[in-house]
Records
---
Amino acid sequence: MRQIRTDLAMEQTGARDLPGVTISSWEAGDIVITEVRIDTGEGAKLLNKAPGVYVTLECAPLRKQGPELRIAMASLLGEELLRLMPPEDDRPVLVIGLGNRSVTPDSLGPKTVERTLVTRHIFRELPDSVDDRMSPVCAVAPGVLGVTGIETLEVAHGIVREVNPRVVIVIDALTARASSRVGSTVQLTDTGIQPGSGVGNHRSALTDETLGVKVLALGVPTVIYAATIARDALSMLSEDDGTREEELDHLCEKLFEGALGEMIVTPREIDDLVGDVAQILASGINQALHPGLSEKEILTMMS
Amino acid sequence: MRQIRTDLAMEQTGARDLPGVTISSWEAGDIVITEVRIDTGEGAKLLNKAPGVYVTLECAPLRKQGPELRIAMASLLGEELLRLMPPEDDRPVLVIGLGNRSVTPDSLGPKTVERTLVTRHIFRELPDSVDDRMSPVCAVAPGVLGVTGIETLEVAHGIVREVNPRVVIVIDALTARASSRVGSTVQLTDTGIQPGSGVGNHRSALTDETLGVKVLALGVPTVIYAATIARDALSMLSEDDGTREEELDHLCEKLFEGALGEMIVTPREIDDLVGDVAQILASGINQALHPGLSEKEILTMMS
Amino acid sequence: MRQIRTDLAMEQTGARDLPGVTISSWEAGDIVITEVRIDTGEGAKLLNKAPGVYVTLECAPLRKQGPELRIAMASLLGEELLRLMPPEDDRPVLVIGLGNRSVTPDSLGPKTVERTLVTRHIFRELPDSVDDRMSPVCAVAPGVLGVTGIETLEVAHGIVREVNPRVVIVIDALTARASSRVGSTVQLTDTGIQPGSGVGNHRSALTDETLGVKVLALGVPTVIYAATIARDALSMLSEDDGTREEELDHLCEKLFEGALGEMIVTPREIDDLVGDVAQILASGINQALHPGLSEKEILTMMS
Amino acid sequence: MRQIRTDLAMEQTGARDLPGVTISSWEAGDIVITEVRIDTGEGAKLLNKAPGVYVTLECAPLRKQGPELRIAMASLLGEELLRLMPPEDDRPVLVIGLGNRSVTPDSLGPKTVERTLVTRHIFRELPDSVDDRMSPVCAVAPGVLGVTGIETLEVAHGIVREVNPRVVIVIDALTARASSRVGSTVQLTDTGIQPGSGVGNHRSALTDETLGVKVLALGVPTVIYAATIARDALSMLSEDDGTREEELDHLCEKLFEGALGEMIVTPREIDDLVGDVAQILASGINQALHPGLSEKEILTMMS
C-alpha cells in the first residue's frame, strides 16, 4: 500500500491486533477518543510512526454542526493536552505554528498561533497584572523553508535557546486517508513532528531530541493526497477481481507521473474550515495553559 | 463515463470524428490554440455543450515558466477575444466575475474583475480625459447564491438593464479532467455560461437569451473533481482487464457516498495560481477593450 | 465650521436648542441611546442632514471591553432596527453593504454583508425548511464606482427591481468628529444615504425616493478626517486668543493643500476593529430579521 | 517641539547648519537623494538619532506615477544598499521584516519579506543549480511582541546564532512628519533599528551591538501620528501670533488625552500602497543581493 499516505496513527492500525501497539477507545458525548500507544520498535515499524502516544478526537463534520460541538471539542482537547503536559514551573510554554500562511490548507499552524493567548511578556513586564490562573505562554509561526530559506528546526532551535520553554507545542496541518476525517479529527501526540509529515512535508524532526525539551504535536487533517484517492479506488476494484498489489502500484505511478502527483484534495470550503479548526485548537490550548480563566476572560484579553 | 466532469469542450472531443463538430488547432509560439465549433444539435448532444465556438489556449504549467509566457498568453487572449466581440458602438462592455471570493479556487472571477481597467465612469464624467484608444468598460462581481440569497442571473439582469452594455464578458473558474490543464488552459466561448458549469455550479444560464445581449464567457480550470480522478484510475485499470462501464460507475458511487463527493482537487499553490491567472485574464481583457493603450499606460491608470 | 466633517447627526447638535430638532437620550446598561429627530427643513439646514430620525447607540471603546458589551450592543441594535422597520409581508429584506472591501476603513459594509444570514433562496427553494421565526433576507456588496465603473445607486436600483424588497438596509462606514466615537458608536437612520456621506464619499443618494422603497441606513464611524483634527486643534487655540473663524479656515486650507488633505485618521488596530464592528452590526440585523432564532441557531445556519 | 515625531533623519535637520552633521543631496532623474551623516555625539543629540549614515530616496507620490518611477526607485535603492553592504563572503544575508502583518500600515516588513528571493536553502541543497550571480539569502518576519510574547530582538538573536549571516537587513514601516513623504520616501541607514522607532514602536535595539553582526535598516513612512498633524496646525498658528511653545504643548496634551492619542494618519489607499512599496523594497534588495540576475530571472525563480 505504498501510495497511501496519512499522518494519523489511528488510520494505520486497521482492525488488526498489532504487536507492540496498544489501542483503546472511548466516547465523550458525540466525540470518539482513540489512544494508540506504540510501545516497541516493532510496533513503530508496523505503523510507520515513532514510538509514543497518539490521542485522536473524532467528531462529525464540523461544518454541519452547531457551536456546541466545537466548544466540546476545544474543552476535551484542553483536557487531553493537560494530561500529556509536563508539570508546571516558572518557564513559559512555547507554541509553534508550522506551515505556510499563504497556502490555505497548510495555514492551520500560523492561524492557530494568531488565536493563542500569549502572556509571557505580561509576566515579565507587568507581573502584578497576572495571577495564579495563568501561565506564561509565547507563540511563533516560523514560516516554511521555501519562503524563508531557513529550516523550521533552525528557527525553532534558535527561539528555544532564547526563551527556554518547559514544553513546546507544535501545531501542523496533516494529511489523512479518509475524507470524513478532514477538518473533523484532532491528533495529539508526545512524539513531536517527524520528517516527511504534514501538508508541508517537513524535512527535519521537531522532537525532544532535536529541540532538547519536551515536544507535543497537535494537528488536524486538511487534505488528502490525490494519489491516496486514486489508490483507494484501485484497491476497491482489486478486491473484486484479485489484481495484484504491485500491478496497482504500477498503474498508480503511471496515473501520477504528471501534474496530478502534486495535487491535493480538500473540501471546497477549506478557507472557512481552516479558520474554524484554528479557533478550536487555540481554544483548547488556551484552556490547558490558563486553566483558571473563563472563555470570556480569554476573549477579553485577546481583543 | 458519467462520473467524469469537465467544463472544457476540447476535453470532451477525444480523438473522434464527431458529426456537427468542427475542430481545428494551431500553434503560436509555445501556445496551442484549439477551436471547437459545435454547429448542430447533434454535435451539442455528443459533447454535452451548447452550440457555438469554444477557443482554448493551452500552455505549459505557468508556475514553472517565466513572465514571457504569461505576456504571450494575455496578448493572444486579447486577440481571440477581439475576434469574438461584436462591433464597437457607444455602449459599454460589462465584465462580470462569477464565483465566491472567499473560496480560493472559485475566486478567479472576482479577482479578474479587480484587475480589470474600468473606464465607464470616466467616459461619463470626464469625457475630455479619454481618447480613441479606450472604450467604456464596467465590471462587477455579483457574489454567489449561498452568500447573497440572489441568483447571479438576477443581479446580472438588473445591472444589464441599468448600464445597457453592447456585450457582457463573464469570467468563471472551471473544472477540468486532466490535471495538466489546471491553471494553464484558457477557454473562451460565445455560448455564455450554462447551468451546472463552473466550480460554483451555477444554476441559471447567463446567455444571449437570458440577458438579452451578446454574452462571451472566459474561464480557466482551477479544480478537478475528486470523483473524476478516481474514475480515471478505475478506467485505466478496466482497459487492462475489461471491467464493464456500469460496474465502474457502481464502484465510483460507492467510493463517493460520503464527504469525498464534495471534495475538490487543486494544486497545492492554488492561492498564488488564481492570482496569476486572474492577472493574465485581466491583461487580455484590458488589451482587447483598450487596444491603443500600452501595458504601461494601463498599469499607470490602475494604480 | 466648514473644515469639520461628521456623518453623525448627534455630533452636529451641540448643547444648543435647535428649532425643528427634537433630541432625547436615555441609557440601557452601559449604552447611551440618543435620538435626534429632524422635523422641519429649518432643522435640516441647521444640522446639514436630511429630515428624519437618527438613533445613535454609544458605548465605551469596544477593543477594551469584554464580549458582553458587544452582545448588548447587537441586541439593542436589533431592537432599534425593528422599531424603524415597515410591517412584515412576503417580500424580502435587501441588505446592501456599501464601500470598498480593499480599503480597510471603508470595508465595513461588505464585511457586514458577509456575516448576515441570507435566507431568500431557502424560502424560494426549500419552503418547508423555513419557519415563522425567519424572514426572507438577501444581501449584496455592490462595490464602489472607481472599481466597478457603475454608480452604487445603479447597481442597487437594478437589484431592487429584480428582488422587489419591502425594505432596504444600507450599511456604511462613517466619519466622525470625536475620536472616542470611532468604532464604538452605531448610527441608525430612516433617511437612507445622502450624497457626500461615508468614508467612500458616495455621490448619489440611496433613499426612499431614488430606490422607490423604504431605505434604512446603519453605520459606524471608522475614520476622522485629518483636516477635522487640525481644525479642532486650531479652534481650541482660538478659544483662548480670539482668532477669527475665517482666519482659521484660511490656515487650515494652507495646511491641507498637499497630500494631507487626502489622509484619514484611524485607530492603529483598524483591521481587527472593522471585523468586530461588522460582527455586531450583522448580529443586530440577524436578530431583527429572524427574531425567533437563537444566536446559536443563527451561527449553525451560517457555518 | 516635543509632540512632533518622525523616523526620518532628514526631517530632523531643517535648514540649519548643525555641528557634527554633514548633509549632502543630489538628484537622479526624478529622485532626490539626501545623505545625512551624523559624525559626533553632539550631532546625534541634536537630531535625536544614532550616529551613522542615513540615505533618503525621495520621489513624487507613487500612486500617481507610472511603473518607470518604481523601477527607478528599486534600481537606485539596490545601488545605495550595495554601497553600505560589507564585502561578500560565504555567509548568507539575513533579511528581517519587522511589524505586525495584521495591522496594514505596520505590515511593510512582513510583506517585503514575502517578495524577497530566498536562496540559502538552494545554496545548501542544490549547490550546482546556483551560480556566481547569486548570493545566499534568507528572510523572516518574526512578528511583534503583543502577538508572540517574544521580543523581536530575542527572535532575531536566536536566528542570527543559527544562520550566522554576514549582514542583517531589517525592514520596517516608519512614521514621518510631512504627509508628502508617506509611501514615497525610502530611508536606508547603517545604524540599525533604535528603541521607540517604527510604526510598531520597537522597544529593543536591533544593531551591530545587540546582534553581533552588521545591521542595515530600510524603511518607508506609512503613517503620521495624529498628534504631529495637530501640533503642526498649532505651530502654524503660533507663527502668526507668537503663542509660546509650552502653551502649545499644553494644548496638544489636552487635545490628545483620549482615544485620539492612539490614532494614526494614513493615506486612504494604504492597503494598496503598502503592497506597492513592499514590491519596490524587495526588488531593490533582490538586485543588490543577486546583482547578476535580470528582473525576469528573479520573477521566474520566485513563481
---
Amino acid sequence: MRQLVIAAHGSRRESSNDELRALVALVSDELDMGFDGVEVAFLELASPSVESVLGDLFKGETSEVVVLPYFLSAGNHVVKDIPEEINKALSLWPDKKITVLPHIGAFEAMASVIAQACQH
Amino acid sequence: MRQLVIAAHGSRRESSNDELRALVALVSDELDMGFDGVEVAFLELASPSVESVLGDLFKGETSEVVVLPYFLSAGNHVVKDIPEEINKALSLWPDKKITVLPHIGAFEAMASVIAQACQH
C-alpha cells in the first residue's frame, strides 16, 4: 500500500492545524489512483509528528510513503529537518520506501492559485 | 490604477526569494483584467519591504492595491503584521484604497495543487 504524507510546520493556533486537516480532506477526494490514503504530519507544535505517522503507517500494511513538504520556501525545515526525519524512519524500517516531493511552493501551479485568489 | 501586492515572509536564502519572484512573473501572465501589475513585498529578511512597495505605488498612479498574504496559515504575520503595515500606509495615503485577501493557504484551490504535486 502507498500513502501520501503531507509534512507541515504545525502551529500553536489549533485553528491553523485544523485548516490544514480540512484541506487534506479535500485532497483525499482529488487524489488519483496510486494512493491508498493521505495523512497530515507536523514537524513541531502540533500532533501527530512525522515520526509517529510514518511509524504507524509502516507498522500497518503501508510499504511506500510519498512525503510532500507543505512549505512555501526551501528553508531549514525542508532542507534539513524533513530529510532527517525520513532517514530516521528508514533506519527503523529498511525494507520500506519513502519518496520526497519538492516543497509545495516549488510547483508552478501555485501561480494559478494566486491568480484565482485575486479574482476572489 | 489597481495593483496586486503579494506579501511574503522573506527568507535569508536569496534563492527562496528569487523562487517567489519567478512565480510572480508567471502570475503576471495569468492575471485577468482588473490589475495593472503585480509586485512582491517582504515582511522581513528580504527587500523590498511592504512599506516601500506600497509607498512607491501610491507615489505613482496607483489608486488601489490588493494585498495577498503569501502564507500557508494565519499566524501572527497574517493576523497582526500585515494589517499593521496596511494601517500605516493608509495613514500616510488616506485617499488610497487597500484590500486584503485571505492568506493563500485558505484557498481550496491549494487542494488541487497538492493533488497535482503527488502525480509529479
---
Amino acid sequence: MTTTEITVKMVFDRWNGALQNWNNLLHALPDEALYTAIAPGKNRGIYLLGHLIAVHDDMRVLLDLGEKMYPELYEPFLQSPDGVTAQIPDAAALRAAWYKQCEAFSLQCGQLAAEDWFDKHTAVSAEDFAGEPHRNKLNIIITRTTHLSYHTGQLRLLK
Amino acid sequence: MTTTEITVKMVFDRWNGALQNWNNLLHALPDEALYTAIAPGKNRGIYLLGHLIAVHDDMRVLLDLGEKMYPELYEPFLQSPDGVTAQIPDAAALRAAWYKQCEAFSLQCGQLAAEDWFDKHTAVSAEDFAGEPHRNKLNIIITRTTHLSYHTGQLRLLK
C-alpha cells in the first residue's frame, strides 16, 4: 500500500465508523425520542438529523459529486435554529432522506481513486490550491467526520 | 510539500482545531458549570474533563512519548462512570492537569518528522503492522480527534 492509499483508508475508516455510530443510535431511537430536546432548551434530535443531511448535501457540492439532493433542508436546518421553521419534514421522511443520501455518497466516493482525494475541492481556486495543497477533497471528509462526531455525542443523550 | 507532509498537516490542523474548540468552551465555563450534568442524569462537565485527560494520557503511551502523566485518573474517569469514585480532583486541579498535558503533548508531537507518524503505534506488533500499515501513530490522532469532538458536543450544552 502506498502512503496515499493508507491515508485514504484511515480517513474513510474513521468517517464510516462515525457514520455507523450515528446510525446505531438513530436506529435505536424511536421517532418520539427524536422530537425530544437533547437537553433542556437545546436542539431536538430531529433538528440534528436534518442538520446533518443539509451539511452532507453541501459536501456533495464541495466534492463535485453532483447537486444537493435536498436543497429545501438548507433553510430550516442550516440557516435557522431549531423551532423557527414551522413546516419541517417528519422523522420518517428525514430518516429515509438520510439513508438515501448516505448510500449515494458511499457509492460515489467509492468510484474515486486514492490520489483523487488529494485534488482540490470546489470551493478553492486553482491559484490558492497551488500554495495550500491541504485544501483538498480528503480534508472535507476529515472536517465533516469531527462535525458528525460532535453531534453524535449530543444525540447519544436521548438514549 | 509531499503527500505525507500534507496528510500530517491536515490531521494535526483538525486535532488542534478540535482542542481549540474544547478549550474555548472550557475557558468560558465557570467551575460551577463543570459540576453540572450535561443533561439530566448524564455525566457532569468535570467527568468529561477528567475522562479526556485519562484518554490522552493513554495516547502518550500508544505514541511512545513517555509514561502517563496522571495514572491516578484512569480508575475514576475511564474505569468508572461519573459519581462512583468518592474522591476526585477538583475542577481547578483538573484544569491545570489538562493544560499541562496539552502543552507537553504538543511539544513532543512537534519533534516527530512527518514520516514518523506512519510508523506503528505501541499496541500493534511488528508482525501485524506489516499487513496492517494503517495501524500507525497518525491513526491514533485521527481516532482521538473524533473522540474529543464527541465530548465537545456534550460540554457545549453547559453553555
---
Amino acid sequence: MFEKFYSERIKNTPSSFIREILKVTQNSDIISFAGGLPNPISFPQEALKVSMNRIADKYGAKIYQYSTTCGLDSLREHIVNRYKNLWNMDITIDNVIITTGSQQALDLIGKVFINEGDNVMVEKPSYLGLLQVFCLYRANFVTTKLNDDGLDINDLKNTLKTYKPKAAYLIPNFQNPTGLTYTKENREKVFDALKDEDMLLIQDDPYGELRFEDNIRIPYIGLNQTEKNLYLGSFSKIVTPGMRLGYIIANKEIIKMLETAKQASDLHSNIFGQYLISDYLSNNDLDTHIEKIKQLYKEQAGAMVSAMEEYFPQNIKFTKPKGGMFTWVTLEEGKDVLQLFDKAIAKKVAFVPGHPFYINPKTVNTLRLNYTNADSTTIKTGIKRLAEALNEV
Amino acid sequence: MFEKFYSERIKNTPSSFIREILKVTQNSDIISFAGGLPNPISFPQEALKVSMNRIADKYGAKIYQYSTTCGLDSLREHIVNRYKNLWNMDITIDNVIITTGSQQALDLIGKVFINEGDNVMVEKPSYLGLLQVFCLYRANFVTTKLNDDGLDINDLKNTLKTYKPKAAYLIPNFQNPTGLTYTKENREKVFDALKDEDMLLIQDDPYGELRFEDNIRIPYIGLNQTEKNLYLGSFSKIVTPGMRLGYIIANKEIIKMLETAKQASDLHSNIFGQYLISDYLSNNDLDTHIEKIKQLYKEQAGAMVSAMEEYFPQNIKFTKPKGGMFTWVTLEEGKDVLQLFDKAIAKKVAFVPGHPFYINPKTVNTLRLNYTNADSTTIKTGIKRLAEALNEV
C-alpha cells in the first residue's frame, strides 16, 4: 500500500532472517542454538542495583536530563584508561564516542563514510548487522575469505588490488558468526597488506574480553600504527546489552564527524545507563566479573565441541572457539543447509542457517550455533538431535 | 586529514549551531534562554526510584537482556490506551514502535522514506533536528509559512501544487522554535488541502501534553481520516529525556518497515528504561504529574511574556505561547539577529538566533527563547538585559 513511498535503500535491505527463525523457536520444546544472547550470568544484577540507587542519590536530576552527544565524560574516562592499560593507546576522551550499542556505531560509521557504491571489504562470512546497515547506505560489498588462522592473505591482496576498497570491516576476535580468531602472525600480514592502501580499518570487538582458552590477548591489527583505525567496543557482552551502550575509539577529527551524525540520529545515548555503568566500573572489579563469564562460556563451548566430536558425522567440519559465543558448522560442499534446517526443526533443535552472513547467498552449506544459553546437558541433547538430522541430508 | 573519506551526506550536514552557542553560555554569569531543557521538576524522581527497584526485583535479568526491536509490549500497550482514550484511535501495539527518543523517530522515517532529492515540506521555520537528519538523507526541503493561527493556507496550496512533496513534517502544538499552535480551523483547512495529495503527513508532538492555557486539546490534522498519518510522541518532556524514549504511531505496514530500519540502527532501545517508564505509568497518575509541570511552565511563560511586554521596544514582535517551552521573537525587517547576539552576550544574556531553523538562511531577524529553566525573577532580569541589547541594534 505504501510501496511507492519507500526509499530505494530500505527496499533493498533484507529484514532479519534471524528474527523469523526466532519466531519458529519460541514457545515450544525446541532446543535453540539460534539466538545470540549472552547468558544472564553476565549481568552483575546485584551490583547494578546498588549502583542505580547510588547514582539516584548522588546525581539526582542529572541521570534523567538531556546530556552531551559524545557521552558521559566519566564513562569515556573508564574506556580511555582500560585501552591505555591494555593496549598502551595514546588517547583521551576526545578519541571516544559512546554509541547506542555497537549497532549504532556501525550506523554512524555508515552515515559518515559510505556513499552509494563505495567498496567496503568484509570477511566472508561477516556479521549480519553490519551487512544490513551498510546495505542501507548502499555500500558495494567485496569479500575476503576467512581461514582458520584469519584472513586469506592472497585473497586479501587480490581484493585490495581489484577493488581498492574505501574501508575494511573486520572482527578479529571470536568472530560472529564463525567463532574464528585471527592469529598474531595473520594480523601482522593483514596490516602489511593494508598499510599502504588509502583506506579505513574498522575493527569490531564485542567478544574480545571473552577469551577462555590460553590467556594471551592478541593486539589489534595495526594497533597504534595508523590514524585510519576505528576500534569498536561494547558493554553488551560483559555487563549488559539491555542498556545499549557501545563505543568507538578513533582519531579526534573522525569522532567530531561521528558526533554530528549521532546528534542527528538520537541526540545522545541513554544517560541513566551511562551513569549506571560508570558507577559500576568505579565500584567493582570488571576483570573479576569477566572471569566468571569466561568460566561458564568455556564449559559450554567445551560441551558443544565434545558433543559435536562425539555425534557428528565425520564429513562435518566445525570451529573450536577459543572465546566468544559461537561455533560454525560446515556441511559437505553442495549440501543445502535449509534442508537440514527443516529436518532439525522436526527433531526439535534450531540454529541459524549461514545465509544472512553472506552477500547474495545461493546454496549455503554453513550454519551458526550459539552455546551461551543452554547448560551442558541440554547442549549435548541438542547436538545429538542435530547429528540425527545431519545423517538424513 | 580524512576529508576524502567522508560521505557526501555528512559533508553537507551542518553540525549544531546550538551546541556552539551553549559553549559560549557555560561557566559564566550569563542568563541563558538558549537551551531547550525541560525543568527538572518534570522528572518524577522519587517515583522513578521506587519503580527501578521494583522492576529489578520483579523482572530480574530481563531488564538487562537484549529485547525486541519494536519495544516492550507493556509500554506500547500504555501508549495505545492513552491514544485510544484521548483520540479514539483504532490501533493496537502493532501500530506502535518505540524509538530512541523522537530524534531517532525522525532518523528512521528518513531511512525508510527519503530518497536523495525527494521534496519534503516543512514549516518556515522548522525544528532544527529534523532539518539536520533529513539533510543527511539528502531531502530537498520546501517550506510553507507559519502564521499565528497555523500554516498559511495559500502558501500551502502553492507549495503543494508547485513541488508535489512526498511528505510534510509539521509540529501543530507549541511548535519548536516558534511556540505557535495551529487552531482547530486551521488544521481542518490544512487537511482539506492535503487530503487529495498522495503524500505522507508526519506530525511531531513532543509538547502537546504541555498545554497550560485553555484546557482544550485540539485534534491532530486528519486524525483517524487517513492511513498516511505518522504520529510522533515522546516521554522526554513529561517523564524524562535522559532515557531517550519516544514512539511512532502509524499504519502496521509502515511500522514493519520502520522496524527493519531500527534493527539496523540500534537493534532496540534501552530496555531498562522501557520497563522503568512502563512501571511508572502503571503505578502513578501521569496526568497529575503533568499538571505540576504545566503549572510551573505557565508561570514561567507568563513571567517572560510580561517582561517582554514591559521592557521590549514597541517594534519587537513575539509569540505568547499557550503551552510548550519556547517563545519566538521577531525584530524589524532587515535587522540582523547576529548583531543582537553579540550585544546580548556582552550584557550577559543568551538566546538562539533563528538561523538553524531555516533552510539556507541569509540575514535572519528572529530568535528563540526558552523559559523552562529559570525562575520568574531571573527571567525578568534576563529579558531586561535583552531589551537593553535590542535598544542598541
